[in-house]
Amino acid sequence: MKIGFKVAFSIAIIIAVFSAGLLLSITQTRQAMIDETGKNAITFSRDILDRLDQRIFGAMNSLRIIAVDPEVKQLVIESNQEFDKIDDVDSYLAEKGAEWRSYAGKENPIFNEMIKNPLSQRLEELRQTFHKSSGIDIFPEIFVANKYGATIAENNRLTDWDQSHRLQFQNTRDRGWHVSDLYYDKSAGIWSLEVAVAVEDGDKFAGMVKTAYNIEDIIQVFLDSTEQSSYETARFAVFSGDNLVIHLHGTENVDIGTDVTNIVEFYDARNIPEGTYFGENPTTGKIAITAYSTSDGYRDFPGLNWIVGGTIDEEEFLAEVNQLQNILLGIMAISIIVGAGIGVVMIRGIVPPIRKIEKAAKEISNENFDEKVEIKSKDEFESLGKSINEMAAKLKQARKDKDEMVAMLTHDLKQPLTSILGNCDLLKQQLLGDLNEDQTKATEVINSNTIRLRSMIDNLITAQKLGLGALEFEIKKTSTKGIMEENITTHSPIMSNKKIEYSDTSTEEFTVNTDKRRLLETFTNLIQNAVDFVPEEGGKIEIGAKDSDKQVVFYVKDNGEGMPEDKVGGLFQKYYQVKSKAKRKFGGTGLGLAVCKELVEGMKGKIWLESEVGKGTTFFFSMPKAD
Amino acid sequence: MKVCVIDDDSSITDVFKTSLEIAGHQVTAENSSKAGLELLENEKFDVTIMDLQMPELTGMDIVNSLHQSGRIKEQKIIILTGSDPSKEEWGDMSAKGVRLTLKKPLQRELLLQTIDVVSKQP
Q: Which of A174, A175, A384, A414 is the most buried (most CB within 10 A)?
């Protein structure tokens, strides 16, 4: 399943990377939207503030028109000249001021006179003129004070006669103009804003012209703008320099003049002139973007210390992005499902055929060539399966060919051997005439080598049978005495020929469960090996059987050159040969020991050896004792 | 004894003939399996040595034929073979009346002993 896991893992990684990419793009888009909206809100606020500042500046300009009117100027200067004659102006102001106040709530004769005097008339004239030409009511109410702070003209509203101690007078006197912040005019009953400018005589302060506006008029500018806002959840507000609500446009109704110092939204506004904040709105509890801006003045008017700000709920201004986010999440989910589906299909298409091929390959390596791979997927796997089937068929055929060849070969080889051996026997036994010593030797050599050749062929046949699993053992109770006797008889001729001392050194007789033929075959192989390893002079081979508890251990011992330990390990493998330093060449097909091992183990025995370089080798193999 | 040797390989029949004649037997050798069958049908021998792998008629063909005709009981057949017969094959041969099998190549002593033993069988 490792391939399946790899495929699934790869697909998962691809989807993860893709999803991460999507998420990143969503996040960035969102942030861009927030930043953009914030900027827009600030721009909007700034725009309103600019207009407010301009409005105030416009008002100041209007007052200047009045302040520079020659007639107004003349009348104010005349008033100043009269007051110049007074010794103690302060006392006069205080006296007259007290008198003015004494008329509170009643008819005020000073006021009645003031509104009709030439200056007041002139003011009214100017107002009419202005109204005719521009259509604008230049001032709802107006006051004029002289340079000492005494009110000398007004149009309709009672005001404090002594202006000298008032901030607007002092500001006007000191710097030429005044704009107040939002305040509540008790006498008029409205939230107002005052604007005053100086009357100048040359470069000297001569008096003050003052007006007060209803705040509603001022913020009309603001209201006009916000009508244009396209956001439904947007709430906009204007706050005065003292943190009083001037206007709040939105879902709540908050009265003008409400102190909002503690509202967190604009807490930073007094420190940082402009800003945005994205997060939970403490008032509504919703996530929103809040942006504000503060007034920065207009021309020589340094500006009101007002804040304009707005807040829009995230739900609304991020609606599109959130929608996009949902779409992308949907795509992600679908792609995960599709990816998983593809993964499953791929795994289904890959793993089973691979398993089938794996199984077939295993069967083939276990020499089972009949297992057929059935894959019908119409892809590379199908052709691979077919190739494997072809390969198996070819292997099967190759083995069959080999078996046939071996059978044929071994059979055919025996024909010539039969007549060689037959004739050799006749010669050897001097049945075809006497032989001299040399001739006898020669026939002996022919004879022993023919026997040699025969056992090589027998080994080949046995090995072939073992390979096919076709060798059957006939296990019977067998006496070791008979076996040993036959071993001596069979091999004595060659031993005497080669002058090798050959003996059976068994001390006891036993009965074992074995296949006699195969046991003798084993002995023949080992004895023939020993013959090749013993020295030319003084060679000695001992065979025998000894007791070993429930087994009988047979041995073949030679006094040959021995074998080093590192060569011993592979000895029983097919085709393995130990290189001999002896002059005698080591023949053989290399099958002998491998065949011995399989025969012995097939008869429930074990085979092993002990060897010492320079001393000799002893081969041991065990057979179970018969009861 | 009268011994019949049937093998398509003449060098084998020659060496057996020489070998057995030296031992005092009377030997008739035949290289053609067809002629060999005829021989066995018409003449009586004490022992017959016969090869399996022969062209035209194989050793088994001859055995089957003799078995059918019943002659097999009289002609004591020893099969001489270069192949290694399996248990089943030997079982079949034995059932059809073959006395013994010998494997090629073999030594003279074994051949003589076997002939002796088989001839003494009923």
A: A414
